[in-house]
Amino acid sequence: MSAFAIKNLMEIEDSAAGRAPDIEARFARKHLDSEHLGVTYFRYGPGVRASTAHSHREQEEAYVVISGSGRIRLDEEIHDLRQWDVVRVSPQTIRAIEAGDEGLELIAVGSGRPEGGDGVAAPTAWIDSSR
Length: 131
What we know:
Number of helices: 1
Oligomer: single chain
Distance between the termini: 45 Å
């Protein structure tokens, strides 16, 4: 592992391109050559709701809203999000994101994880029927 890494998130390929309409996802973990840290840029278009929710077996995450607004599902609760909110999520907490009317941009930061990842798909993405 190198002593440091510098990488522009917008120069990393959009992993959601062609798979999720109006969602952008740029995963920097492998580009940062880090054993313990993942950083991801997400952009959700206006009103876009993630079609899946997930939790983790080991990885703790934090989300920082950098623009726009929206909502986040955390287990059986829905919470509003606004610019500069920071949300820390324990590994076992189910989470999903929904953008507000102006869209939502956020940075996700993840802690160390086992080789190959530790994501666990949730049975349903959303617990309410609004929108």
